Amino acid sequence: MRMRLLVDSKEFWGILREDILSAQQSIYIQTFSFEGDKAGNSLAEALLSSPAVDKRIIVDDYTKWVISDKYLYSPRNLFNFELRQEVRETYRMIDGLEHNGIKVQFTHPANLLEKFAVHNHKKVVLIDQRIAYIGGINFSEHNFEWHDAMLRIEDAAIAEALDADFQSTWAGEKTEISQNSGEMDLYCLGGISNHELFGRILAMIEGAKERIYVESPYITFPFLDSIAKAAQRGCSVTLITPGPNNYPILREYLLWISARSGIDVRLYHRMSHLKGMLIDQRYLILGSSNYDYLSYQFHQEIVAIITNPGLISEYTARVFQEDIRNSEPGYKISPIKGSLINLGMRTSAKMLALLVHPRSNARAAALNTLSPANGTQTVLPKSRQ
Predict the structure, then answer these.
(1) What does the pLDDT look like over 252-268, one tens digit per residue?
(2) 0.70 exceeded by the pTM?
(3) Which CATH number fits the domain 184-348, given the four candidates 3.40.50.20, 3.40.50.300, 3.30.870.10, 2.40.128.110?
(4) Which end of the chain has the smaller Cβ count within 10 Å, N or C?
């Protein structure tokens, strides 16, 4: 297995563009946001120039409702003519791709409630069934401006698993896949039994003996609860989150928890969308998950648990240590304010679980786990969205 860490969009796009232009057979892209701005159009132009025969993009339904990190139908945005122009440019870009034989498909949640609360949050690129990218970067200009990272992987087994997941999503189905390949365990989560994988990660956090590094813009319970317990029992915990967070309430919530538990919170100097966790310098957890309640219960995600010492050392130096140098210590939050935020978030989470999970649990109950003889891949059979 060959892995290459790509930090921020400039490094990521420079390498990905070369792979797209040299592809011969297929290019499959799955993204949460795909917008008709400089980033989106750069991808579109590269795809149009690529000689690959089969070129497809899956975009979450989120892009139909949010552009440039702005909800299209809020009162203050209804007459935002610049935003409306970008919406038109987005659909013009997609129409141009489809006119030239590049297929674009939106994922569709099952109902109106899930349209706002439950998403396919994966970010994946698969080139010629042999080169894969996973991580957190979307194809929109504001995402390209944020701090983030992707991991480029050359491995046949990982590419096969991601291809199976892409094909399932393309067919409008939910399939859960796990694949072990040497120093990586890859999980393609379908929003059906996410808590089973994340239960493993929570156990790793709770078993940490020395140090935990975490970087995430939106981390919440149950992950933050386990991290707080680790800090309280003496494990050194450093958590990096953006100071200028696009959801400030999550920054305030995190700062309140940290004051009660001894987590060393560092506020990164610009918006960071990066998601990474390192436990005892042994386990590096990467992917699309924010380590929040929505990922834990509902979202479709890509998560990798990596044990490669070289990548762990590089990630520690280039991401965690570098980002700590570009951060400042967190500040104190009023106990009353923090308590109210905590109460509101947990109450909302319980209500959402009651509304969404009766359907999710009904779907999950119909699934049977199939394990091939070699034990390397687990696939949960198809369940219609």
Answers:
(1) 999 999 999 999 999 99
(2) yes
(3) 3.30.870.10
(4) N
